[in-house]
Design a protein that fits this description.
Blueprint: E1 12-15, E2 27-28, H1 33-50, E3 64-65, H2 66-77, E4 83-86, E5 95-96, H3 101-107, H4 116-129
Parallel strand pairs: 1-4, 2-5
Antiparallel strand pairs: 2-3
Amino acid sequence: MCWLLPWARARRSIYGTDYPTADGTAVRDYVHVADIADAHLRALDVKLDKGSAVAVNLGTGTGRSVREVVDAARRVTGRAVPTVERPRRPGDPPELVAAVGRAATVLGWRASHSSLEEILGSAWRWHQANPQGYRGG
């Protein structure tokens, strides 16, 4: 998501429009940071109960294309998101989607805040409230 923010006038690059996907752009499994945090807390509880580390894939189990993300950003913000199409980057696979069954079984976890609208909406609200980003100190 970060490549779409902050909402500057600069064009955002879409790398690859010739993948064997529905719209030609790469497909990825986007998950909200709040869902990731919840899964980590659950993993700590499992480790404390069973005494061993847990390794699972975290995601929604559903892929969304780069074009879908850009379209959702336009809907959520009500603003244009200018893009420029560029060639694929070497080694980028057409699709990466998490196999989430183990997370559900071992952690009792599934993503619940990870629609594109919710991910982008929370990022958009944060950037509106913090236009200069983090001011550490």
